[in-house]
Amino acid sequence: MMPDLAVPPVCDALPNPRGGAVRTAEMWLDAADDALGRHADIAVPMSSAAAALAEAGWLPAARFAGQLAQAALLVGTEPTSAGLRAALRDFRLTVARHNLREQACSPILFEHYRMLRAQSAADLGTPVPADALALVGRAVPPATLRPMPAAAVARLRARYEQALLAALRAHAPSDPALDEIDACMTELAGDDAPYDFWRLAAACMRALRASGAPELKRFVARVNLLLGEHARGRRVASPELVRETAALLWRDFALFGAAAEDVALVDVLHDYGLTVDWHVAGTSASEALWEADASRAELDAVAVAPTRKLGVVTVNAHAYEDFLQTADASMAELSVDPGAADAGAAWRAADAAYRVGAAACALGLGHTALLADTLGLAWRRVAHGAGFGDGGLSAHRHATDMMRAALLKIAAGVPPPDLTAACAALGATLGATQGGAGHA
Questions:
Q1: Which end of the chain has fewer CB within 10 Å, C or N?
Q2: Beta strand 313-316 with 307-310: parallel, antiparallel or unpaired?
Q3: Three-state SS sequence of 367-398
Q4: Spatial contact of 96 and 2, defined as CB atoms under 8 Å apart
Q5: pLDDT of residue 397
Q6: 97: how many CB neighbours lie within 10 A of its CB?
Q7: What are phi and psi of 107, to 5 degrees?
Q8: What is the distance between the alpha carbons of residues 416 and 315, in angstroms, rounded to a whole number?
Q9: Considering Cα of 224, then 60, then 29, then 7, what sign does the dihedral take?
């Protein structure tokens, strides 16, 4: 069942008209909304919705639903707060838009999630990182800080801090102080360093400036603390900061797509296992028109398109056929032995994995999309010469076999097997940190 369209929709991203739907989860969310209106318990329907979303591989949505269930338990029999009601309303609308990247990166949902977490006594006063929803279950590789002469780092730190003081007082993202911070990050990263933290930080700062994001000043101030540790000899950035930086860089691109001028930033995202769609940027007026047309297209698609069931996910039959074509075209590159591949084969395999991941994400096959993206990350690291950690080659081969089996099952109209273990095992061998796939 679709949510009440009389309610103003959240507008973080466009709907995905041909995306898959988890009807069981939508049913439980409707039941929770009805219970909320009667001041009845919503913990059971919310937990059931979370389980269905997790089964579909919609892990950020499952985590959000689990947090709503926890909040409902805290509320008990008292009248529900306006915040809980608004969180459920916006969540239902987001799930109905079938856009998995929006579920991961929506600022509206993140603010609700932060509020729900703040209501928990266990989390009181603990900030919620930007990756808490965005990177659930995703492996993020480590980022290094290259050795530099102490005097050189000291000079760069003095420049950075002087520019930071001016930037904190700036009112526009075009302020020259931010240009100076950008220049410092570029010098810190050096050349040919795909997994240097300062390359990631510079890309994140440029993306935040372009979008006018309110997190920009906090980000450059927080990074200054790491610069101080770099000056004292630290050689690896904290995994928590790397994950949060990757999530901030990905957010707007995940929601709105990337344009041709963003290619360098998208290349950084690909090195961290994250993909985007491409679009031709338009004016705000054309964006609004596009949004209205997409909403109408979604209703039309749901009304007339044939569907197929792949486990708990109901998919658009035309999108399903398109996905199979993408998977078939990518199978040869994905079947290359990682132990024998040269750099050229590794780059092609990474691109193929990301194509499958993006197509699976659009179709609503969350587990398949996540494993494909993790394979893309693994192949990018092979292409960069990063090598394998302990058991990495075996995990890469096993993940490839699991991906091939999943694609063959999907082609036969059968739900793919559980890919969580293969994804986690491969991510662990990349020296990566992973966000838990739990519901809360």
A1: N
A2: antiparallel
A3: HHHHHHHHHHHHHHHHHCCCCCCCCHHHHHHH
A4: yes
A5: 96
A6: 23
A7: -60, -35
A8: 14
A9: positive
DSSP state of 336: S
Those residues with Cβ within 8 angstroms of residue 84's Cβ, 6 or more apart along the chain or in another chain = 36, 68, 71, 72, 75, 116
DSSP-derived 3-state class of residue 251: helix
Distance CA 375, CA 425 (A): 11
Q: What is the DSSP letter of 138?
A: -
Determine whether 399 is exposed, middle or buried from the number of CB atoms within 10 Å of its CB (0-12, 13-18, 19+): buried
Task: Decide if 367 contacts 419 (C-beta within 8 A).
Answer: yes
Token pair 């269905």: residue: 52
What is the rounded CA–CA span in Å between residue 313 and residue 18? 12
Whether 241 and 220 have beta carbons less than 8 Å apart is answered as no
Q: Three-class SS of residue 283? A: coil
Residues 6 or more apart from 30 whose CB is under 8 A from it?
1, 3, 92
pTM to 2 decimal places = 0.91
Residue 276 tokens read as 């985007």
Angle between helix axes 343-363 and 392-411 (nearest 10 degrees) is: 40
- Return the exposure string of 325-343: e unless at least 16 CB atoms fall within 10 Å of the residue's CB, then b: ebbeebeebbebebeebee
**Burial of 115 from C-beta contacts in 10 A (0-12 / 13-18 / 19+):** middle
Rounded Cα distance between 166 and 106, Å, is 30
DSSP 6-54: TSPPP-SS---TT--B-HHHHHHHHHHHHHHHTT---HHHHHHHHHHHH
CA 200/CA 206 separation, integer angstroms: 10
Q: What is residue 352's predicted lDDT score, i.e. its pLDDT?
A: 98
Q: Please tell me the distance from the alpha carbon of residue 34 to that of residue 270, in angstroms, as a whole number.
A: 42
Alpha helices per DSSP H over 149-283: 150-169, 176-189, 197-211, 216-231, 239-256, 263-271
Tens place of pLDDT for every residue, the chain, 440 residues? 344 434 444 456 778 888 999 999 999 999 999 998 888 889 999 999 999 999 999 999 999 999 999 888 876 545 447 789 999 999 999 999 999 999 999 999 999 999 998 876 655 667 899 999 999 999 999 999 999 999 999 999 999 999 999 999 877 766 899 999 999 999 999 777 899 999 999 999 999 999 989 999 999 999 999 999 999 999 999 999 999 999 999 999 999 999 999 999 999 999 999 999 987 544 445 555 555 565 566 556 555 678 999 999 999 999 999 999 999 999 999 999 998 999 999 999 999 999 999 999 999 999 999 999 999 999 999 999 887 777 889 999 999 999 999 999 999 999 988 899 999 999 999 876 666 654 44
